[in-house]
Amino acid sequence: MFIRWQNYRSVALWHRGKPPITRVKAVSWSRRCASTASHGSKHVAFIASYEANKLDQISTRSTFWRDARQRLDRISNQITPADRSKIEAALAQRVPTTTGRASR
Question: Which of 27, 33, 47, 55 is most buried, most CB within 10 Å of its CB?
Fold first, then answer.
């Protein structure tokens, strides 16, 4: 499992008439083994996103982590506990937790 970080411009309906907001999203991917017919990676799930210019705010980080943990709980049937720990550690490298720890 690894995390791919992607920048995108949010054009949600609630900002109609305002300039788009640049957001960063974390997407979980798994590596396929070389023996399978299709080589490469497989998209597992969207984890969470945050507004790019507001990462220094505690509210942004706490919302990101709340959403990420809820999503990881929902996809727990697709990932192992070891993978979840690796995902949380990878997320913590980019988005610091508000409590100062990487996992619950």
Answer: 47
Q: Which long-range contacts (CB under 8 A, 24 or more apart) does 61-70 make?
A: 61/95, 61/96, 61/97, 61/98, 62/98, 64/95, 65/91, 65/95, 65/97, 65/98, 68/26, 69/104
Cβ–Cβ < 8 Å for 49, 82:
no
Handedness of CA 45, 31, 55, 24 (dihedral sign): negative
pLDDT tens digits along 56-72:
999 999 999 999 999 99
What 3-state DSSP class applies to 45? strand
pLDDT at 34: 54
Residue scoring higher pLDDT (87 or 98): 87
Q: What is the pTM (predicted TM-score) of this model?
A: 0.75
Distance CA 3, CA 93 (A): 11
